[in-house]
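Give me the fold.
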Amino acid sequence: MSYQIEQKDGILTFIIDREEKRNAVNDEVMNGLKQVIKHIKENRDVRFLVVTGAGDKAFCSGGDLTEFHSLKTAEEAFGMLSKMGNILYELATLHVPTIALINGTAVGGGCEIATACDFRLVASHAKCGFIQGTLAITTGWGGGTYLFERGLRHDRALKMLIDAKPYTAQQLYEIGWAMRIFDGPKEEALEAFIEDMKKIHPSVHHAYKEIELRKWRERNMYGRVMEEIKLCAKLWESEDHEKAVERFLSKSSNHK
């Protein structure tokens, strides 16, 4: 199984469990996350959704290119990108608070997953970044749209996307992407973060989230996410992307 699901005291934790692949997303991970979101929508026993990665090296390294490199045309790419894009939109618009518990590196699509969450708690050793530009594509799961909505200054958000490189935990905190940096066990960091939130009735959490979601509906958030995904799909079929991925996979193979 490519993921684990744990539920305790109203906290549902989705763990991407592919350490050998730096917790890269494959179809199974997508389907698991989709099922978890469906469960939360249909059951009122979950107060918080936490997304994290197995181990301490990687939160998520994005889409598994060894699987997705077989997608060649814009149409084929859009199928995969829009599937995850729809899942992340469902995650971003959940009625419960969502927390990215970033235990290690979060790059590419991993950074998009974290940005779709309400809160980002980052391990002090972790680095995170939208490295899609190094593969001659843009964010493809809606991450760019979420980043501009998350309250970062426009110039900081744009530079983070254009830099296409990992930032340190301290840099992420300074620009406002990370809410907290933690040392030690991630479980303790999570518990400390939600200590006060747990004392408040869930209906209050739902009401506050609805205020934000109302704004997103008025601004056609879903439509904008889909336009972002179409743009990435178009770049996906370019020769520049093809060559960049081949270089990346060759480099990764040589490092094994």
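The radius of gyration is 17 Å.
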